[in-house]
Write a structure and sequence with these properties.
Shape: globular
Radius of gyration: 38 Å
Strand order of the largest sheet: 2-1-25-26-20
Number of strands: 32
RNA sequence: GGGAGGAUAGGAAAGCUGGCCAACUCCGCCGGACUUAAGAUCCGGUCCUUAGUGGUUCAUGGGUUCGAAUCCCAUUCCUCCCA
């Protein structure tokens, strides 16, 4: 008895035992199916959102396996990059927040946590955790092929890959601005920031105003507004410095002087100048003439050069600052100078906008939004006045910047678009220009062309993402591909640097095919020639361990290219596109090895809010599995949304999923051994079953896990309910139910493999259900007539119930009156008519109909309505051939009487003498309850 | 700012090559049956109205059409990506 109890954790234990090496997959005679997932960066524990990412491909893998394919589903761990280095530092520094996250949320034991001061220990720990939890989820992964991206062997593979990229001319050297901490003396990654992780580096133009023998540089994003400059702003409370920058005298804030050093300038500070001493002095620029310096306390010395040029006609801040001064009776001769015409903002846009929004002073919180609004409006729609060239702002901006750089000493200065940006160490982050920065030249049009050509031949799921890929390829710019900190493979042409994490994980899908075998060879022997041989078939002398290489070559040729890659949609604009670029280069001229398809996922929500480890809004996958069971988690994640849609995890919904599995299990256990003789209703059940098989198969072919579950689970369950209702009281069901159970269990096996294995054993199925044959729909068992008869019966039962509810009397008998043959004729004529409007005329031409007069036209109208109302799968067969309604109801008489507990009479409407019987229509008999 | 997608019952979600659509299905809730009870299961209900009917609905406003949740335009809001 205890064996047949529904006990998920017992099933799980049983299955794990059977599966130990089952999913290790080798080349064989069978057709192959290779799928893979973007590998995880194991810096923390898995949450349920991760669960779906790996369960969807597992369902597909299991499905394809049952279809008889040789399936490869590998997994590895991406440990390269900087984040984990930051984490280890924070743990070493006893950062409370980080420690709490790892100790309390991820539940890392203290003795392990103590070791986390070493970054590699962190990723290795969580890689093992990942494997453990993935296994608990029933993922059918070939773990022999597991690797991490800092394995020496893998590094050799990366070096080989980059050699090809380099030789193809895709790796170039350039300069690059980065966030930089001068205390740590290192670039700062997102995860190393205390504040300002959204800040971006913006390229400003320094407009050089002449001030005696020196320059005063003002940073701007809008150099074209130089024509409208009325003054500069200096902060009277700030101490400025006069410094020799690249040999020429500049007046800038102290902070700016420090920043310029990081941006390729030599800076020697000569003297300090008080801001107040600058006020009311004059400066000049060839494009705007002489203007005064005005005082303004809003000027931030830590923003770019610490001096600001004022364009009151187009910048709300400048406008208000000037207005405030003038209201105090100062500088009243200065007038805003408009220079850009923009529709809908009057003569002086800044003034117009400020007045429209009724902004009182500089402190108004809407100022930033307003500035942004004007900036955007002028950029997209604005045009310079004719005297300044008349060009659109979009074009003029770059032209003016170029002119200033060439003729008027302007230079570029990088600064953040928002502040403050603060490092973990508490120091202000600055922008530094890095030299020796290497780039992947994704901007290369020829390379783009190869990628976009191949993209056309790839299967993309869902199809809507194709435009996003096309756009990404179109827009992609050069990508900085080396870093100075973190874990990773050394960059071959500059050993001081590392290959950046997104750039070292683009062709590893090929590496999976040989990962378990290449380990046997000493990494020192893994020259590029070795990989050239394995992956490209290029022969060369002195290849080591030729036999092993041949075996690897064979694996690669068998598995590659991969059939589908699964990944979340936020990777479209980088990783998923990069990997196509890299494949195109590495497998240059070998189109048959390029990726075949991709499935892109939506995001995960927890109780309606976005999942986020840092905010603590996560539910750990491990907890979910132990609380609800692996099958429950799987079925919930697969059934709540299609893979590419966002899904929402809610515990109460998960709980009801568990009940569903239990219901399924109990039902199967109860009926699997039924042995009665089949009735008509069994033929109906078998007929319906074929459709569920076909639809489930089709859904899975399209990766629609939700649709597939809907068909395979609820579709069959609903049929069974009707089936049991239709069974005579004393009958336990026929031996056909055994077939149904076998099919049903197999259809669900990819989703709930643990329960599947257990039931398979209970049903004495051969081998493991994981490798059992996928059911195939048998067209011969589809019986349209029987389905139609049941449909008629079900609809009639429904009608009787709704009438009974309405009249609220205790019925003594029910009479079902069937429509006469001539109404069937009308029905058929209308259903087959090409023009349903004129068909009534046609009908009335008939002698027999005409003599019935109004009765016939009424019936025709009602039939038309009915035909519109019935689904096509009912109308079509009825149009071909009427069904024998009398026979249907006669044989169901016992059922109906049992259902309603009163005598049921079946009569022909015509000649019954009942008034209500006249409303009888084909497929809709009249019902008289007394 | 540029790009992509979306807005349907209490929640989730199907339908979206125009007529079958008050709208598959699941969850929740309400009522009933079974049960000592709970749970499970089964039946019914869940916009208004009603002898199985009819009406009003699918973010808002407009358009195309004999006819639109479904096509087109505008607006509002949401999500994601890039800047």
């Amino acid at each position: 008895m205890s064996v047949s109890q529904f006990d998920l954790s017992a099933f799980e234990e049983e299955a794990h035992e059977k599966w130990t090496h089952s999913f290790e997959s080798n080349p064989s005679k069978l057709e192959k199916y290779y799928l893979n997932v973007a590998f995880p960066y194991p810096s923390g524990a898995m949450h349920v959102g991760h669960g779906r990412t790996y369960i969807v491909p597992d369902v597909v893998a299991r499905y394809q396996r049952m279809k008889g394919k040789q399936v490869l589903f590998p997994m590895a761990f991406h440990v390269t990059g900087a984040p984990v280095v930051g984490i280890s530092k924070r743990i070493a520094n006893k950062d409370e927040k980080t420690i709490r996250l790892y100790r309390d949320l991820y539940r890392v034991p203290q003795n392990v946590l103590d070791e986390f001061t070493d970054p590699l220990t962190i990723v290795k720990h969580f890689a093992n955790e990942y494997q453990r939890v993935m296994t608990a989820c029933g993922l059918s992964i070939d773990w022999r092929r597991r690797f991490i991206t800092v394995d020496p062997t893998y590094s050799k593979f990366i070096e080989w890959q980059w050699k090809h990229l380099y030789e193809a001319g895709h790796v170039i050297k350039g300069v690059h601005p980065v966030r930089y901490c001068t205390v740590d003396d290192n670039p700062v990654g997102d995860h190393d920031l205390l504040e300002g992780d959204k800040a971006e580096v913006i390229k400003f133009t320094l407009v050089m105003f002449r001030f005696g023998d020196a320059f005063i540089p003002c940073a701007t994003l809008r150099p074209e507004t130089i024509h409208g400059v009325t003054n500069l702003w200096a902060n009277p409370t700030v101490t400025y410095v006069k410094a020799l920058v690249d040999g020429r005298a500049w007046i800038i804030s102290k902070e700016a002087a420090e920043k310029l050093v990081l941006q390729d300038h030599t800076v020697e500070i000569r003297e300090e100048i008080k801001g107040s001493d600058l006020v009311d002095k004059k400066v000049s620029h060839p494009l705007c003439g002489e203007v005064p310096i005005l005082p303004a306390e809003f000027v931030d010395p830590d923003m770019a050069s610490g001096m600001v040029m004022s364009v009151p006609a187009h910048a709300p801040f400048d406008y208000i600052a000037l207005r405030d001064l003038q209201q105090a009776g100062k500088y009243t001769t200065i007038k805003p100078i408009p220079l850009i015409k923009v529709e809908g903002y009057g003569e002086v846009p800044a003034q117009f906008a400020v007045e429209k929004a009724a902004i009182a002073n500089q402190m108004d919180s809407r100022m930033d939004a307003l500035t942004q609004e004007i900036y955007s409006a002028e950029f997209s729609k604005g045009k310079l006045f004719a005297q300044y060239g008349g060009k659109p702002v979009k074009i003029a901006r770059d032209e003016v910047a170029e002119l200033m750089t060439e003729k008027y000493d302007s230079v570029v200065m990088y600064e953040f678009d928002q502040r403050p940006v603060i490092c973990r160490c508490g120091n202000r982050v600055k922008v530094k220009i890095l030299h020796d920065q290497w780039f992947l030249k994704y901007s290369d049009p020829a390379w783009k062309q190869e990628v976009s050509d191949h993209l056309k031949d790839m299967a993309l799921v869902p199809p809507e993402v194709r435009v996003e890929f096309d756009r990404t390829v179109d827009w992609l710019k050069d990508w900085a591909c080396t870093r100075r900190v973190g874990l990773g493979t050394r960059f071959p042409w500059d050993k001081q640097q590392l290959i950046e994490p997104l750039s070292d994980s683009t062709v590893y899908m090929a590496y999976y095919t040989i990962a378990h075998k290449i380990r046997e060879i000493d990494p020192k022997l893994l020259t590029p020639e070795v990989f050239d041989y394995i992956f490209l078939g290029k022969k060369s002398d002195d290849l080591p361990q030729k036999k092993k290489l041949d075996a690897m070559r064979e694996e690669f040729l068998y598995w590659y290219p991969y059939d589908f890659r699964f990944s979340a949609k936020d990777l479209i604009s980088n990783h998923l596109t990069f990997q196509i670029f890299h494949h195109c280069t590495v497998f240059e001229g070998q189109k048959k090895f390029l990726p075949k398809g991709m499935v892109v996922f939506g995001m995960g929500l927890l109780n309606g809010a976005k999942m986020s480890s840092s905010k603590g809004n996560v539910f750990l996958l491990e907890d979910a599995v132990s609380e609800f069971g692996g099958d429950t988690v799987r079925m919930f994640l697969m059934g709540s949304a299609e893979p590419w849609q966002d899904f929402d995890w809610r515990n109460e919904l998960v709980l009801s999923t568990k009940k569903q599995i239990e219901r399924f299990y109990n039902t199967v256990m109860e009926i699997k051994d039924a042995s009665g003789e089949p009735h008509d209703i069994d033929r109906w059940l078998m007929s319906r079953l074929q459709e569920h098989i076909a639809r489930t198969t089709e859904a899975l072919d399209n990766f629609q896990t939700r649709q597939a579950l809907q068909e395979a689970y609820f579709g069959i369950e609903t049929d069974l309910k009707w089936y049991r209702r239709r069974m005579p009281k004393d009958c336990d069901g026929s031996r056909d139910l055994h077939t149904l159970c076998s099919v049903w269990t197999r259809l669900l096996a990819p989703f709930i493999p643990f329960t599947g294995e257990h039931l398979w054993k209970e049903m004495a199925g051969e081998g493991l259900i994981s490798f059992a044959p996928w059911p195939v729909a048998d067209k011969k068992l589809v019986n349209e007539k029987i389905e139609l008869a049941e449909e008629l019966l079900a609809r009639t039962v429904e009608d009787i119930e709704s009438i009974r509810k309405l009249i609220q009397i205790t019925p003594k008998s029910i009479t079902i009156a069937l429509a006469p043959a001539w109404k069937h004729d009308i029905f058929r004529m209308i259903a087959t008519a090409s023009d349903r409007n004129s068909v009534i005329k046609e009908i009335m031409k008939d002698e027999n109909m005409r003599k019935r007069g109004k009765e016939a036209t009424d019936a025709a109208k009602q039939c038309t309505t009915l035909i519109h109302r019935l689904p096509p799968y009912v109308v079509e067969p009825l149009a071909r051939e009427p069904i024998n309604e009398k026979a249907v109801f006669d044989s169901a008489k016992a059922f109906l009487e049992q259902e309603f507990g009163v005598p049921v009479h079946i009569v022909e409407a015509e000649g019954s003498g009942l008034v209500k019987a006249l409303t009888a229509l084909p497929f809709k008999p009249a019902i008289i309850i007394e």
